[in-house]
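Q: I'm writing up a methods section and want to include an example of the input and output format. Could you take the sequence below and give the corresponding predicted structure tokens, formatted cleanly so I can copy it straight into the document?
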Amino acid sequence: MHHRWLPRFVTGRSIALPLALALGLGVSGTALAQAKPSAAPVLSSPLPAGAGGAPVAGVPSGSGAGYHSPNSPIAPLPQRTDVIPWSVLTDLTKKTTKDGILPVFSDAQKGMDKTTQRIQGFMMPLDAKATQTHFLLTSVPLTCSFCLPGGPESMVEVKAKTPVRYSMEPVVVEGKFTVLHNDQYGLYYRVVEAVPVK
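A: Here is the clean output for your methods example:
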């Protein structure tokens, strides 16, 4: 069941619980259902000048590539020429329909659909194991267990052929890349049959 208070990608089976917990909703979402919507979100951590406050015009809350603080103890992703750049994945527009917000993919993104690609990112585990076969790769590292790093365009769902060891360092996987036009979890990209790459 989709609650009108929850983002689309917080509903469903396998990703719903970890993402709900990451959003601080708890298992039942009861507190959220009883909560009244507020006029503006209150941030619990300081952001640099210009990064917080009023929303940027045309950029809805919960969208974009995410923010990687220069004060983060985790280094940003290293430059690589053998992976899809996150700038390509996050450069898309969205359309609002009666069923939700859907991605409108560029020709470059459509051209990668159902092809073998490499993705580099930070692992967001969906299980409490040392190795993962189903996880998300994100464009920026997680800074807290209750915060999503960016919008759905900043995440790629990975279903690995062989387990991938969890790491706070960047992870690179290679597999069949798919663009998701109307995913039930609200994700925009998926890599299946993935294998880790050095």
